[in-house]
From TrEMBL:
SUPFAM superfamilies: lambda repressor-like DNA-binding domains (SSF47413). Pfam families: HTH_3. The keyword DNA-binding applies. The keyword Coiled coil does not apply. Residues 1-55, 94-131 form the HTH cro/C1-type domain. One of its GO terms (molecular function) is DNA binding. CDD domains: HTH_XRE. This is Helix-turn-helix domain-containing protein.
């Protein structure tokens, strides 16, 4: 996130105003107190055409190769899990994500918090952009 603000030439106030997010939120994100919500990440990525993986320092590729997914989060998660050869049980073990959470993703269409997205992307070897439904 720091690199993005630097690249844009924005301070916290200018970025928060332009991106439509709270100034105190941006301050806490930069300080590492907590991460942006998935919805905030998507909004920022789309507005500035920047990869969420780049924002977290997981990729040197800054530009978002935008590809809006028709799949639900649960469908994208399941595809990634199967491609990685992981059972649901292995996800529970490796990522510490319980069956109840996965059930909510499937039955209620819920999406996880950012911290869970980070764990899943690392564990499954896929991008945050893909899991968030905005990229490859």
């Amino acid at each position: 996130m720091k690199d993005l603000l630097t690249d844009l030439g924005y301070n916290i106030e200018a970025f928060s105003k332009e991106a439509g997010v709270g100034r105190s939120d941006v301050y806490h994100w930069l300080k590492g107190d907590y991460n942006p919500s998935p919805r905030s990440l998507i909004r920022i990525a789309e507005k500035y055409n920047v990869s969420v993986d780049y924002m977290f320092g997981f990729s040197d590729r800054k530009e978002l190769i935008f590809k809006k997914s028709a799949l639900t989060f649960y469908e994208r998660f399941t595809r990634s899990r199967m491609l990685a050869g992981f059972s649901c049980y292995k996800i529970w073990q490796e990522c510490g994500i319980g069956q109840a959470a996965m059930s909510r993703w499937k039955t209620l269409g819920c999406i996880p918090e950012t911290e869970v997205f980070l764990k899943l992307a690392k564990c499954l070897g896929c991008t945050l952009d893909y899991l968030l439904g905005i990229g490859e």
